[in-house]
Specification:
By secondary structure, the chain is α+β, with helices and mostly antiparallel strands. It is 38% helix and 18% strand.
C-alpha cells in the first residue's frame, strides 16, 4: 500500500514537471495574449509566434559565446574565486545550484580569464548533462567556468538574460540543442551549434512582463512538487520503520 502511494505521488510529480516545461514553452513561443495574431516562424521547433516578434539566431544577439579552458583542476584551492561546473547547473530551473561549489586560485594572466562571469551571463552544459542551464544573478561574485560549460553573454540593455535562458530551457530550445549534439556515447555540443539556435524575441518590456508571470506560475508548481516530494520522503521513512 505504501509503495502504491509513493508511485502515485511520483507520477504526480512527473506530470507537474511536464506541466512546467509546457508552460515555459508556451510562454516563450506564444506570449501571454491568447488573441494575438500569429505568424509562421519559419523554424520547425518554434512553430507559430506572435506577428510582432522577431526570430533570430543566438549569434546575432550576443556579445560573446565561449567556453571554459581545459586543465583548471590544477588551480583548485580552499580559497579563491568560484569555479562553476556542470553540477552547478540544473535541468529543472535556470537558477545556479550552490551546494557543491569549488574554488580556484589561478595565476594572473591565465587564459581562462576570458570566461570570468558577469551578471546576466547564461551558462549551458555542452557535455554530459547536455543542455542544463543557469543564469548568473545580479551582484553575483565573479566566477570562472569549466571547459564543459558554454558562457553566453547577451547584448546589454536589449535582451533579458532570463528570457533567452527560458527559450533555451523550453521544448523548442532543447530540441534545437539536443538535435545539434554529436559524438558516440558522450553527447557534446560545439559552440557553433549554440550560435545557430533560433530565439523568438518580443520587445524588451514584453519579455520582462512574460517572465514575471512565468516565474509566479513556476513557483506555484514548484511548491506543489516540493510538497509531494516531502510526502514521498515521509512515506519512505514510514515504510522503513514498518519493516523494522
Amino acid at each position: 500500500q505504501i509503495d502504491q502511494l509513493i508511485a502515485k505521488k511520483q507520477t504526480l510529480i512527473d506530470k507537474l514537471n511536464e506541466q512546467r516545461i509546457a508552460l515555459i514553452t508556451h510562454a516563450v513561443t506564444k506570449g501571454l495574449n491568447p488573441a494575438v495574431t500569429l505568424k509562421d516562424s519559419g523554424v520547425e521547433w518554434l512553430g507559430e509566434v506572435p506577428k510582432h516578434w522577431d526570430v533570430v539566431r543566438l549569434r546575432y544577439i550576443t556579445e560573446k559565446i565561449t567556453s571554459g579552458s581545459r586543465g583548471w583542476a590544477q588551480y583548485f584551492a580552499d580559497e579563491g574565486e568560484q569555479f562553476l561546473r556542470i553540477t552547478n547547473l540544473s535541468r529543472k530551473s535556470i537558477s545556479l545550484l550552490e551546494d557543491d561549489m569549488r574554488r580556484v586560485n589561478p595565476p594572473e594572466g591565465t587564459e581562462g580569464e576570458r570566461t570570468k562571469t558577469q551578471d546576466g551571463d547564461i551558462l549551458v552544459s555542452i557535455t554530459a548533462d547536455l543542455g542544463s542551464i543557469a543564469v548568473i544573478p545580479e551582484n553575483y561574485e565573479a566566477s570562472y567556468v569549466s571547459q564543459h560549460i558554454a558562457l553566453i553573454r547577451p547584448e546589454p540593455k536589449q535582451f533579458d538574460s532570463k528570457w533567452i535562458a527560458y527559450c533555451l530551457f523550453s521544448h523548442a530550445g532543447k530540441a534545437q540543442l539536443l538535435g545539434a549534439g554529436y559524438g558516440g556515447t558522450k553527447v557534446q555540443l560545439g559552440l557553433a551549434d549554440i550560435k545557430e539556435v533560433y530565439i523568438p524575441i518580443p520587445p524588451l518590456l514584453e519579455q520582462t512582463k512574460i517572465i514575471e508571470q512565468l516565474v509566479e506560475q513556476i513557483d506555484r508548481l514548484d511548491r506543489m512538487i516540493d510538497l509531494n516530494q516531502q510526502t514521498i520522503d515521509k512515506l519512505k521513512e514510514y515504510r522503513t520503520a514498518l519493516i523494522t
